[in-house]
Amino acid sequence: MRIVTVAGPPSVGKTSVILKTIAGLESAAGHVGAVKFDSLSTLDDALYSRAGVPIVTGLAGSLCPDHYFVSNIDDCVEWGHKSNFDLLIAESAGLCNRCSPHIHGVLGVCVVDALSGVHTPRKIGPMLKLADIVVITKGDIVSQAEREVFSYNVRAANPRAVILSFNGITGQGATELGHHFISAPNVESLAGSRLRFSMPSAVCPYCIGETSIGTDHQRGNVRKISFGGTAT
Questions:
Q1: What's the order of all strands across the beta sheet hosting 107-113?
Q2: How many domains would you assign to the chain?
Q3: Which of 16, 127, 132, 156 is buried most deeply by CB count within 10 Å?
Q4: Contact status, residue 17 vs residue 169, Cβ threshold 8 Å
Q5: Cα dihedral 21, 26, 30, 31 sign
Q6: CATH number where 123 lies
């Protein structure tokens, strides 16, 4: 079974990119299933179902969505094998820019939108910098100059990635992305596989439900901001 992880900030068009790509592949993709990871809620499962794609949704709730993802992705692969999928797509949103869901040996895609500002690619961490493919959406509604600068900054952040422009409405770009999907490595299990980047190591009271503010409530791995003697 081929596996693809697709990640990106909320509302950049990840689901549209995936569904347009699957539709473009037609029978070449075989039996396709999807897993949608999100933080609090999602309506995207309805879009997958409407497209005839079996979907399982996982909501992190009060847990760190990054840890939730990595704690469940191998179970998703097992579900994919039991469902006889040829291609399993794991879509994740709600990940902080510090993290990366990409896994060694698994095709990793990052979706960003050109409307987010030309400097955004430099602000996104391993999710973009360690992706195999960076898909840029909404390029049709910014100027040519903005498109070129945005693409340049993506290239600067991740020189080794394939960069694709994608129109989530028309599906332009789906053919090339689909080629990468069906060329993804076959994976039997992710047990023993490794993430391309570590998850946050911070464990503090706020991770487990603390809501009070003040140093008396701050324990564990806490990092304080430095003001550098700028107080007036």
A1: 55-59, 32-38, 87-92, 2-7, 107-113, 133-137, 162-166
A2: 1
A3: 127
A4: no
A5: positive
A6: 3.40.50.300
Q: Rounded to whole angstroms, how far apart are CA atoms 80 and 98?
A: 28
Q: Which of 162, 33, 185, 32 is nearest to 104 (CA)?
A: 185
Nearest to 3 by CA among 166, 132, 95, 171: 132
pLDDT in tens, 61-101: 877 777 788 889 989 999 999 999 999 999 987 566 667 78
Q: pTM score, two decimals?
A: 0.87
- Rounded Cα–Cα distance for residues 178 and 135 (Å): 12
pLDDT single digits (tens) 159-212: 999 999 999 899 999 999 999 999 999 998 888 899 998 876 667 777 777 788
* Residue 113, in any domain of the structure: yes
Are 79 and 50 contacting, i.e. CB atoms less than 8 angstroms apart? no
Domain membership of residue 43 as a residue range: 2-183
Structure tokens at 195: 């993430």
Question: In b/e form, how buried is each residue of 59-96, taking b as 16+ CB within 10 angstroms?
Answer: ebeeebbbebbbebbeebbebbeeeebebbbbbbbbbe
Say whether 142 sits in a helix, a strand or coil.
Answer: coil
pLDDT for 202: 61
